[in-house]
Amino acid sequence: MINPEIKEVYIPACAEHEGQRGVKVKLHWVCPVCGQPRGKIKKVRSYDGSLILFCDGWGNPCGHVDKYDDVIAEAKANGLNNPVAPDAASSKPLKVVKCKSCGAQITWIVTQNGRSMPCDFPAVKYQENRKGKSQIVTSDGRVVRADVITDDDKQTSLLEKIVDGEGYISHFATCPYANEHRRK
Predict the structure, then answer these.
(1) Nearest-10 Cα torsion for 146, 147, 149, 150
(2) E strand or H helix at 76
(3) Least C-beta-crowded within 10 Å: which of 20, 24, 45, 113?
(4) In sequence order, what are the residues at sequence separation of 6 or more whose Cβ sits closer than 8 angstroms to the Cβ of residue 167?
(5) Each residue of 96-146: pLDDT tens digit?
C-alpha cells in the first residue's frame, strides 16, 4: 500500500444510534480486504430499527462490503483518529456561565457532531437507557439517552443502579425559555 488517500466520513457510532449518534472518522481509502480503492462517498440513511440517521455510505467496486462496526474498529486502529481529550481529562476546567434567560448555571459542551450544546452544571451520574427520560451529553461530546441516578434512588431502590458514567443534562430540557433559543 503506497500512500493511500485518506478520507473523512460520518458514520453511525453504534448499531443502536437512535438517529443521533454518529461519528466522523478518517480512513485510508482502500478496501481492507483486497487493497483496491473504496467506492465514491454518498449520503445514505442508516435505520437502527427505531430511527434514521443520515450519514455517509459507499459501495466498493471490488464487491467487498464495509460494515460500520468493522469501519469503527479500523478507525480506532489506523492511527488517524486520535481522540481529543475531553476538558475534564485535560485538566482544563469547564467554563461555567449563567443562562441569559433563566439564570441557571450552565456549561457548553461540543457534541461529536461539532455543535455546541448548553448543559446544566454540575454533572450528574447516569445509567444508559434508550427509553430513558433524560438526554445526557458526556464530556467527550456523545449524546446519550439515559436515566439520571440520584442519591435518593440508591436509598429507595431494592436493586442498586449501575452508573455508566457522568455527563450533563441538556439545558434545553430544563430551561423554561428553551423554545426561544432553538434554531428555526
Answers:
(1) 130
(2) helix 68-77
(3) 45
(4) 123, 124, 126, 136, 137, 138, 139, 144, 146
(5) 999 999 999 999 988 888 888 899 999 999 988 888 888 899 888 888 898
> Which pTM does this prediction carry?
0.48
Question: 118 and 169 in contact (C-beta within 8 Å)?
Answer: no
Give residue 163's identity as a one-letter amino acid code: V
Q: Which three cell numbers stand for residue 178?
A: 428553551
Sequence letter at residue 25: V
C-alpha grid cell for residue 127? Answer: 445509567
Q: Which position has the higher pLDDT, 152 or 26?
A: 26
Strand 22-28, strand 143-149: pairing: unpaired
Question: Which element (helix H / strand E) includes 11?
Answer: strand 6-12
Q: Three-state SS for 69?
A: helix
**Among 142, 18, 7, CA closest to 66:** 7
Confidence tier at 72 by pLDDT (50, 70, 90): confident
